[in-house]
Amino acid sequence: MDKRKRRVRHGMVKERARILVVGGGYVGMYTALRLQRKLKRELERGEAEITVVSPDPYMTYQPFLPEAAAGAISPRHVVVPLRRVLDRCRVIIGEATAVDHAKRTATITTLATEEEGTGGRQLAYDELVLAPGSVSRTLPVPGLAEHGIGFKTVEEAIGLRNHVLEQMDIASSTRDPALRDAALTFVFVGGGYAGVEALGELEDMARYAARYYHNLRPEDMKWILVEASDRILPEVGEEMGRYTVTELRRRNIDVRLETRLESCADRVAVLSDGSRFPTRTVVWTAGVKPHPVLAATDLPLDERGRLKCTAQLAVDGAPHAWAAGDAAAVPDVTAPDAGRTCAPNAQHALRQARTLGDNIAHSLRGEPLETYAHKNAGSVASLGLHKGVAQIYGRKLKGYPAWFMHRTYHLSRVPTFNRKARVAAEWTLAGLFKREIVSLGSLEHPRAEFEIAAGGKPSQDPPHDPKGSS
């Protein structure tokens, strides 16, 4: 008799089901949260076990990263602690480096395994949810690894905020015109959500901060957006994309379409149109790619390296394996033409996670599976304080209404009432008091002062990686 059938009796899980969730991002956390609710009785009776493996002890709500970088939201309110939210799950802080689905095992490395020097350990499972998310897609641009700054994590967002304010401090105090010019030149590569929102929020913050420097003016700063295609923010539509370009250029932001970054070696940004900009800031937001762990599995992948999935969010041809979000190629059943897959955005990830949690519970109980079907409701993007663009159900918004819609939508989507209340309180206080413009760059090297006092040489992590990892 099939193992799946032996598990089911009167709609309940008969045998113990070990569910492994790889990833603690949108899909990983929300799937585990859904399973906690759907399998509450089974978890209490010990008939099911949910294990979540995540490199961080928190889930980052990435749409709030630009506001965290601008100081509108405290960094700790952009993240959700997994152990608090997933109180019925076993949370392991580590990474899955390989998956052998034929044997139902995953290789896991943790901080403890690194200290012990024993290598990865094997973790057995019955049901697998692969939701490791994505990593930055980089190109072999000379100097990028040495000088580039990413914008995918809360550490990178806060590190970038500190970096921008430090460059303003350098420009304010130097007597070298060339150093001043390089310090006040900020190059952002990538015209998607991350690049445009990060640029818009940080330019807004720096413009405000400049009033507190006796020898700096907003006009002294150069903000440059480099995009390889002929449009930015394709998610909000062509018309709103053109409006965004116009709005950014009105703010003295140099938007360069159909242009690529060819080099940033020696702290000089060289563009494909021949322009050269001495700069100490190159922010790379030019897309993402599937997490490397997907290539270390025996599961089917598409041409882009994503897991081939069915509309029920099961990995195609691999029983008991499930996936969603950036790591999965999920058929878009609402699209007019066949063959299209769901866009890798937060809107789909959140909804897929709910369906995924439901379907795993249905599968364990022998019930019919649900088909994931969601038509994109639209997109919203912030361009700084009181500025934004949006396209919601075909309606186009810009300026303050779009910015307000952006905040309202994402406040409704950030997990837990605790985080909603804290973010709303911070926005309220920000409207009553002046913006914070303090740089806490020393947080990235907290032992530096003590090491000098103790007679040692302070260690320095790479400026583009606050975590100190590559």
CATH superfamily assignment of the largest domain?
FAD/NAD(P)-binding domain
For the residues shown, what is the average pLDDT?
A: 89
What is the CATH class designation of the largest domain?
A: Alpha Beta
Low-pLDDT residue intervals, each spanning 5 or more residues = 1-10, 461-470
Q: How do the strands of the widest beta sheet line up side by side?
A: 9-8-7-4-3-10-22
Helix content: 25-40%
Number of domains: 2
Distance between the termini: 48 Å
Helix/sheet category: alpha/beta
Radius of gyration: 24 Å
Task: Give a brief rundown of this model.
It comes from Streptomyces thermocarboxydovorans. With 470 residues, the chain is an alpha/beta fold.
Question: What is the secondary structure topology, with strand pairs?
Answer:
Elements: H1 3-7, E1 8-9, E2 12-13, E3 17-22, H2 26-38, H3 40-44, E4 48-54, E5 58-60, H4 65-70, E6 79-81, H5 82-85, E7 90-100, E8 105-110, H6 111-116, E9 121-124, E10 127-130, E11 134-136, H7 144-147, E12 148-149, H8 154-173, H9 177-183, E13 185-189, H10 193-209, E14 222-226, H11 238-250, E15 253-256, E16 261-263, E17 268-271, E18 276-278, E19 281-284, E20 288-290, E21 307-308, E22 321-323, E23 328-329, H12 346-365, E24 378-384, E25 387-392, E26 395-398, H13 400-413, H14 417-432, H15 448-453
Helix pairs in contact: 2-12, 8-9
